[in-house]
């Protein structure tokens, strides 16, 4: 009977190892997917920043022109 209990315990342990390996593989895949998404989002943010910087310069120039026009208007 001790041998049967030992074999049952080994089988249960083996199953837990298999389940653990499966969960670890799933976790690693999810991490890989998340890292890929993060990379794509970073790329999108960089592209948006490249578009925003010229717009900020234009906004500054418009502010200067507006101030100039207001000054001329007063005169």
UniProtKB/TrEMBL annotation:
PANTHER family: LITTLE ELONGATION COMPLEX SUBUNIT 1, PLATELET-ACTIVATING FACTOR ACETYLHYDROLASE. This is ICE1 protein. The gene is Ice1_0.
């Amino acid at each position: 009977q001790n041998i049967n209990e030992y074999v049952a315990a080994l089988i249960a342990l083996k199953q837990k190892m298999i389940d653990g390996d499966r969960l670890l593989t799933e976790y690693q895949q999810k991490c890989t997917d998340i890292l890929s998404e993060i990379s794509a989002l970073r790329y999108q943010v960089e592209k948006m920043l490249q578009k925003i910087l010229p717009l900020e310069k234009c906004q500054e120039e418009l502010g200067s022109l507006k101030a100039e026009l207001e000054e001329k208007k007063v005169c």
